[in-house]
Specification:
CATH architecture of the largest domain: 3-Layer(aba) Sandwich
GO molecular function, one term: penicillin binding
Keywords: Cell cycle, Cell division, Membrane
CATH superfamily of the largest domain: DD-peptidase/beta-lactamase superfamily
Protein name: Cell division protein FtsI (Penicillin-binding protein 3)
Structural class: alpha+beta
Number of strands: 24
Number of helices: 20
Pfam families: PBP_dimer, Transpeptidase
Radius of gyration: 41 Å
Number of domains: 2
Family: Belongs to the transpeptidase family.
Helix content: 25-40%
CATH topology of the largest domain: Beta-lactamase
Distance between the termini: 177 Å
CATH class of the largest domain: Alpha Beta
């Protein structure tokens, strides 16, 4: 029989206590082990971070707060032929502030200060606004400044185009202000030559370029790479990975290379005068527009290039006359183009100035009948008379003797249908039908200036060839570039093109003096009003019908009015060309641009002290009974 040992209740309690104590010790040991293991892991991580990875992490942190930013180059100036500044840059500053960071810094500082020594963010910003209003005056508004200073934005611009001295004064008073280098483009003449110069500004949609001015129109745009120079750079620290530069953090500076100056062939005083006259005569004639160009007779340099409408690049140019019709807008020249027939007829021995021609009131060319501007029967006209009185019929008689091939060759030599390469953006080549595309009636149009188009610059270029003894020199408007170190680099001079021989040019020039002739018996030319007392003038008037798309033919009421002239005819110095678009033809000023030429020519004689002609142009017979 088995015997069961009896265990007392007291012993059972003692055994349970020993078991519970053993479990507790196990848990304590495990917990201690885990804590030691965690500490070991943390220690190893610390050794790894502070030892093996410290340089890499430091570099990564530095990369997040250090960046290289550009340093703007000073943009070069644009000057006229006499060194008068037409466009230049002024160093300025933009003043900015970091409201969010400054508010947080004030709050953090106040945690360590006694209640009676607490800083006031509102007081600080009020002081900044007050001092800026005092130093910058009406350029800023104190209430608007306070609104910006107390905003929740990370970075706000408080003022732009601030004079550097005033910006430094504000920075000394308030070191928390950020100063950013800027430049402002100045155009001291306002609208003077604005259609030629254009304008420059920041590229507002490109934050990386906010310090650099760039050309947006005209020569400022076309010559931007030369004017802009090469920006430099510097390393700076930024705040919290943003693009906010911490003041005084700049280092590792790579200086900028400033831009070059560009010297033009323009004369600022002459340019001002012809701009005013273009506006005056456009208004007097009721024309939609008027353009004028003045060229050096020998070199083709552009002394003035103006339109009646322009803009002021000192103000926002949006919506203004951002165009230069003198080079971008071609027109049909009308009778001013008869100079081509005159030169060709003399060059090929078809006629002489005093040769007589029987000229009827009209002529048949292919399927069209061409008449003169005035009604007449058969007239005996000299060659000089044909051009002085602008006879379409007489011109076509001479052109037919020249022949279409030789006439086409003369047009080619005069550069028509091609851009002049003057050095301005948007230049038009005009329109000249190719020789193989001429129809029977084409040769009834071209000699009298219809069926082709040109700019006023191209028109003046034809007469420059006449003034320069038969050599056409393509016009140019940039004279030289001046590097930052003062080195002068002349623009390449375009090569001349021989159009006609010297004797032909001089003969044609003398013959066209009769256009300004005033004589009895029907022997007056078409432009006595262009004459300048004491000077021989050679030139030609033009009236061209405008093609009206709405009716599908040439208009009987809309015209281009042109004039091209040489001053003086006996010793050429300048060539002047001008055009009106759709003047009110019923007015005297709408019939001819001769008075416009007279005013410009008279100014030229005074401005450049041009000697009087040695003798008056002789009165020559134009018509005979």
């Amino acid at each position: 029989m088995a015997v069961r040992e009896r265990v007392s209740p007291g012993r059972m309690r003692r055994v349970g206590k020993r078991a519970a104590g053993s479990d507790h010790r196990v848990r304590v040991v495990v917990t201690r082990f885990l804590l030691i293991a965690a500490l070991v892991v943390a220690g190893l991580k610390l050794v790894q971070v502070q030892g093996f990875q410290s340089e890499a992490l430091a570099a990564q942190a530095a990369k997040q707060r250090i960046t290289r930013i550009p340093i703007a180059a000073t943009r070069g100036s644009i000057v006229d032929r006499n060194g008068v500044e037409l466009a230049f840059s002024v160093e300025t500053r933009s003043i900015a502030y970091r409201p969010k960071a400054m508010r947080a810094r004030t709050a953090e500082a106040n945690k360590k200060l006694a209640p009676n020594k607490q800083l006031s963010f509102d007081d600080d910003t009020a002081n900044i606004a007050r001092d800026m209003a005092r130093i910058l005056g009406s350029a800023v508004s104190e209430p608007e400044l306070l609104t910006k200073l107390r905003s929740d934005n990370s970075y706000v611009y408080l003022a732009n185009n601030v004079e550097p001295a005033k910006a430094r004064e504000l920075s000394d008073l308030h070191p928390d202000l950020n100063l950013e280098a800027r430049a402002r483009r100045e155009y001291p003449g306002g609208s003077l030559a604005a259609n030629v110069i254009g304008y420059a500004n920041w590229r507002m949609n490109d934050p990386a370029e906010k310090q650099n001015l760039h050309g947006l129109f005209g020569l400022e745009m076309l010559r931007d790479s030369e004017l802009s120079g090469t920006p430099g750079s510097q390393v700076v620290e930024t705040e919290g990975g943003s693009d906010v530069v911490l003041p005084g953090s700049g280092r590792d500076v790579k200086p900028a290379v400033d831009g070059s100056d560009v010297e033009l062939t323009i004369d600022a005083d002459l340019q001002y005068f012809v701009q005013q006259k273009a506006a005056e005569y456009a208004k007097r004639s009721g024309a939609k527009s008027a353009s004028v160009v003045v060229l050096d007779a020998k070199t083709g340099e552009v002394y003035a290039l103006a339109n009646d409408k322009t803009f002021d690049p000192s103000t926002s140019p949006g919506g203004q006359a951002l165009n230069d019709p003198a080079v971008t807008t071609p027109y049909e020249p009308g009778s001013v183009n008869k100079v081509v027939t005159a030169m060709a007829a003399l060059e090929y021995g078809v006629t002489t100035p005093d040769a007589m021609h029987a000229v009827n009131g009209s002529i048949q060319v292919a399927d069209r009948t061409v008449g003169d501007a005035w009604s007449h029967g058969r007239l005996n006209m000299t060659t000089a008379g044909i051009f002085a009185k602008s006879s379409n019929v007489g011109t076509l008689l001479l052109a037919q003797q020249v022949g279409p091939d030789r006439f086409a060759d003369m047009l080619e030599r005069l550069g028509l249908g091609k851009r002049t390469g003057v050095g301005l953006p948007g230049e038009s080549a005009g329109r000249l039908p190719a020789r193989n595309q001429w129809s029977g009636s084409t040769f009834g149009n071209l000699p009298i200036g219809q069926g082709l188009s040109m700019t006023v610059l191209q028109m003046a270029g034809m007469y420059q060839a006449l003034a320069n003894d038969g050599v056409r020199v393509p016009p140019r408007i940039v004279k030289a570039r001046i590097a930052p170190d003062g080195t002068r680099i002349e623009e390449p001079r375009p090569e001349g093109v021989r159009v006609v021989g010297p004797e032909t040019a001089r003969t044609a020039r003398d013959m066209l003096r009769a256009v300004m002739q005033k004589a009895p018996g029907g022997n007056s030319g078409t432009a006595p009003g262009a004459a300048v007392t004491g000077y021989q003038i050679s030139g030609k008037t033009g009236t061209a019908q405008q093609y009206d798309q709405t009716i599908g033919r040439y208009s009987d009421s809309k015209y281009w009015i042109t004039f091209a002239g040489i001053l003086p005819a006996d010793d050429p110095r300048f060539v002047v060309g001008m055009v009106y678009d759709t003047p009110v033809y019923s007015t005297s000023d709408g019939h001819s641009a001769a008075p416009f030429f007279h005013d410009v020519a008279a100014f030229l004689t005074q401005r450049y002290n041009i000697p009087l002609s040695k003798e008056q142009a002789p009165i020559v017979p134009l018509v005979q009974p």
